[in-house]
User: Fold this.
Amino acid sequence: MKTLKGWLLASPLVVILFCFLLLPVIAIFVVSFWGATEYSYYPAFLFDNYAYLLTSSVTLSVYLKTLMFTVITWALCLLIGFTVAYFLAFHVRTLPMQIALFLVCTVPFWTSNIIRMISWIPFLGRNGIANNTLLDMGVIEEPLEWLLFSEFAVVLAFVHLFTLFMIVPIFNSMMRLDRSLIEAARDAGASGWQILVNVIVPLTKPGIMIGSIFVVTLVMGDFITVRFMSGGQSASVGRIISNEIGLLQYPAASASAVVLLLTVLLMISIMLRFVDIRKEL
Amino acid sequence: MDGRRGLGFYVLAAFFALFVLFLYGPTITIAILSFQGPQGGLTFPMNGSSLHWFRNLFEQQAVGDIWGSFRRSVALGLMVMVTTVVVSVMGGLAFRTRFKGSTLVFYLVIGSLIIPSILISLGVGILFNQADLDVHWSTSGFGSQLTWTLPFGLLIMFAVFNRFNSAYEEAARDLGASPWQTIRHVVLPIIGPSLIGVALFGFTLSYDEFARTLLTAGSYNTLPLEIYGMTTSVTTPVLYALGTLTTVFSFFIIGVFLLSVWWLERSKRRKK
Assistant:
């Protein structure tokens, strides 16, 4: 009876996720073994797509580049996200003020990512604000060319778009932390820094892990930020897939997608060792 | 914490202020630049100021169909919003008791959240292709976007029901309310403000969704796809004018939602 009621209530959810999550993933897995001609693809059971993918030297270098983006973005998001959450949770004193400032951080999440990427053009461009300011200050003699349409710009945009995913879960963990533990640590003579390192960081680890999972999966699977912010010059795993799709090479794209999915799942399963998500809600 | 603000507070406050500037600065910049004069370019300095680029948006477009895509995005956003709220509430209620297989469904939800978006785009594209169905924003696009909005809706509902005091329901049942009456008159009013939150996520995430809609919207673009198409062909501040308008629209929507949450919470408190 309990089971029936549960499944009935969950049925719309299950149907939607079955049709638009499970079936698509199965389809990708199946098609990754199919063959392709220049314009179409046909059912087969070939390992060609994987053989090509796993032996190509491009694959390794693209994965390394994507991992590089992921690690740098993750480190910056964690540093900024933790600091912001820490300020909101422990230094802002009233709840209405905390909510207000928290919303200030959250609102951009509900606006368009594409627009937010475009907004960097006037700041980073050759004649942009950054270059002009640096020129006026005499720091540089010529405009820096690597500000826009570069790997620097890619990481900047990632941090700009995804830090929020770090702030929210860390802030959540911090707000649920029992404040008397901090009092106790202070009474026991711990300095502010010792409290941070020995009390707050360990107790907010679940939040940090959830934020990290978000950031890592978003960066690993991204194809649009890398393409736009690098001006098409930098590669990432997601971009390779989207290029293959553009060339109608669905089996090759599917094989790449399967490998990407396995990589991401592997990374997540490592991170999940440190946290039980279900407890965090 | 002791009464006086230490040095740490000011350092962190400054850091926070810089972060907010980093978040909003670029958006403000393009808002200013969208008022460029007719001869102005994509960067400063301002070459006079005018409403030229906004007017441009309302004229016949050389490329694309901005207003058509805007209407489609709003329609799709509303569809996704309503579906997300209904399905999330039902899912939230389902998960209040651990039914057999609930863990599996839970992992499906988490999987939906963390799967790289391009897999949804590609997979749904292949499925429709194989089933000889045409991809369309209101079918394949709609379903693909739900895989992104539903996890957020459900996570909010899980959080809400975990903190839900079931004594209210028991009281209603003791007074003879039917299960439906209990939900309609007791549960829904209590979780009302959170539902507005779910709706906000549903609408805005759909309205701005890109990666999962890319291959699944078909020949009629949604607004983010249209804007993305413009970035390769348009090199005038008309792009900024469009960006500013849709951001203002987003802010307006967010404002409406947040105000209604605030208003609901206030009227709830008054009743007590």
